[in-house]
Design brief:
By secondary structure, the chain is mostly helical. It has helices at 19-38, 49-52, 59-75, 93-102, 107-111, 114-125, 136-139, 141-150, 164-181, 222-230, 249-255, 260-271, 277-304, 306-335; strands at residues 6-11, 42-47, 84-87, 156-158, 190-192. Helix 4 (93-102) packs parallel to helix 14, helix 10 packs antiparallel against helix 13 (277-304) and helix 11 (249-255) crosses helix 13. It binds adenosine-5'-diphosphate and tryptophan. Residues 8-10, 12, 48, 51, 145, 148-149, 157, 163, 166 line the site of tryptophan.
Length: 339
């Protein structure tokens, strides 16, 4: 399905990524980009720093998060010589495109966008006015995202379920623009959800999420990773008691990282009462450390040599900008009648 297609992935620099982000979003995105490139497609991968400022107002924190996310993608295997890797704020044309798109975007699209709706619901629950603390950046978020996508004639946007609606809005905006001029001026994007990617549970059994504080850290030292893994919820049943692995949280987390043989081994050990909780936690710890060993080294290298990363980002922006400029010209010529 990726033959000759333009794939675009955007990621917001919000918080230090954890194992769930890594296995559920970062690795699959890089993999998908590689598949598209192998099939003659194009892969854009960018850091959505303009989207991040809606929530993060501390420049030092924002800068740190941007560095972390850039280094993590490189450490996890993103190849900036073949993927176009850039930061959103290095492409000023995005904002001119956004302004043009505003004129073709029904306000109702923004009212129904769920990031905005969720913020309103939260305010109502707290007995606050609907728009309390909601800035225009959050309200118009989907139009900027539409611009990110439409600027590059994107075919496919790989997303988690929470972002599907935003891609649909981008498609609807492009459709409205094209319909007005009765011409295919903007390419209609589709979203792609990878069904193989499972939600990784956290140490308390809920979805692993930074907002629940139940994460297994990624590029921390072995001690911190061990501490998190040994805090995974278990019960007091003795080792000898045969157990159904599906009811054991350590096993559930192991599923997202282990090979089929490793999973079988843990499953059999639990069913036969041959593996205790200490054993299986150590098995999970080994798997996590093996998985991230090389990436962690690269991550530490890039964090210490951010000038190299900055160079990659500038090279990426130099490749992305002409494409956005061409789209902007097409739109300006159309709306101002210069053609
Ligand atoms: P968090 O829940 O920690 O705040 P985000 O919402 O910032 O994480 O998610 C960033 C990306 O990581 C999204 O694409 C999301 O689908 C993915 N992701 C987050 N948590 C998990 C998880 N536990 N399992 C799989 N993927 C996850
Ligand atoms: N909204 C996305 C998120 O929160 C980030 C993003 C911004 C994005 N622009 C995009 C994703 C364009 C895909 C395409 O994760």
């Amino acid at each position: 399905m990726f033959e000759g297609k333009v794939i675009l992935t955007g990621v917001k620099p919000t918080g230090t990524p954890h194992l769930g982000n890594y296995l559920g979003a970062i690795k699959p995105a890089i993999q998908l980009g590689k598949e598209a490139l192998a099939k003659g497609g194009k892969h854009y991968m960018f850091i959505a720093d303009y989207h991040a400022i809606n929530a993060e107002k501390d420049p030092a924190v924002l800068n740190q998060k941007l560095r972390e996310i850039a280094c993590i993608y490189l450490a996890a295997g993103l190849d900036p010589s073949v993927s176009v890797f850039y930061r959103q704020s290095d492409i000023p044309e995005i904002h001119e495109i956004t302004t043009i798109l505003y004129a073709y975007t029904p306000k109702g699209f923004m009212n129904k966008a769920h990031a905005y709706k969720a913020a309103v619901d939260k305010n109502r629950e707290a007995g606050k006015p609907d728009d309390d603390s909601i800035n225009m950046g959050l309200y118009t978020y989907p139009t900027l995202m539409a611009s990110d996508i439409l600027a590059y004639d994107t075919d496919i946007v790989p997303v988690g379920r929470d972002q599907v609606q935003h891609v649909e809005i981008a498609r609807d905006i492009a459709g409205a623009f094209n319909a007005h001029y009765n011409e295919k001026l903007l390419h209609l994007p589709t979203y792609y959800i990878d069904d193989h990617v499972a939600v990784v549970p956290g140490v308390d059994g809920r979805k692993m999420s930074k907002s629940y504080g139940n994460v297994i850290p990624l590029f921390d030292d072995d001690k911190a990773i061990k501490k998190a893994i040994f805090s995974i919820k278990t019960d007091s049943r003795p080792m000898e008691e045969p157990k159904n692995p599906e009811e054991i949280l350590v096993y559930e987390i192991y599923k997202s990282i282990a090979t089929p043989e490793q999973l079988q081994e843990m499953g059999d050990g639990l069913r036969q009462g041959k593996l205790g909780y200490g054993h299986i936690k150590n098995m999970l710890l080994d798997a996590v450390i093996t998985e991230i060993k090389d990436a962690r080294e690269k991550y530490n290298y890039y964090m210490a040599h951010f000038d190299e990363v900055e160079r990659f980002l500038q090279e990426g922006a130099a490749k992305a900008r002409p494409v956005a400029q061409a789209t902007l010209k097409r739109l300006k010529d159309t709306v101002f009648g210069n053609r």
